[in-house]
Amino acid sequence: MKCLYPPCTKEPKSRGLCANHLVVARKLVASKKLSWANLEAIGKALKPKPKIGPVEAWFMSTIPNAISTNSNLETEKGSDESN
Ligand SMILES: [Zn+2]
Q1: Is residue 79 one of the residues assigned to a domain?
Q2: How many domains does the chain have?
Q3: pLDDT per residue over 41-78, tens digit each?
């Protein structure tokens, strides 16, 4: 698992991007040039990992289409905005 920016081999920090590239993406989002939804749609950012504990994860794991907490964080298709 490495940063989504192709030449970059750093460990992702959040949203599939390393600390450096996360800063760049955040700046673009902050300047309203892009939104996280845009970046997610084109595969240049991932959805942030849900912050749930193991007990919550256990309950949610029984629900089809619940948020996966597995290591496979490749782009999940089929769900748009859920909020
Ligand atoms: Zn990077």
Answers
A1: no
A2: 1
A3: 999 999 987 777 888 888 877 766 655 555 555 555 55
Once rounded to an integer, what is the mean pLDDT over residues 22-41? Answer: 96
Is 34 inside a domain boundary?
Answer: yes
* Three-state secondary-structure class, residue 27: helix
Say how many Å lie between the CA of residue 53 and the centre of ligand 1.
Answer: 28
- 2 alpha carbon to ligand 1 midpoint, in Å? 8
C-alpha 48 to ligand 1 mean position (Å)? 16
What is the extent of the structural domain holding 61?
1-70
Contacts of 18 (CB under 8 A, 6+ apart): 2, 3, 5, 8, 10, 11, 12
Asked whether the whole model's pTM tops 0.85, one would answer no
Distance 39 CA to ligand 1 centre (A): 15
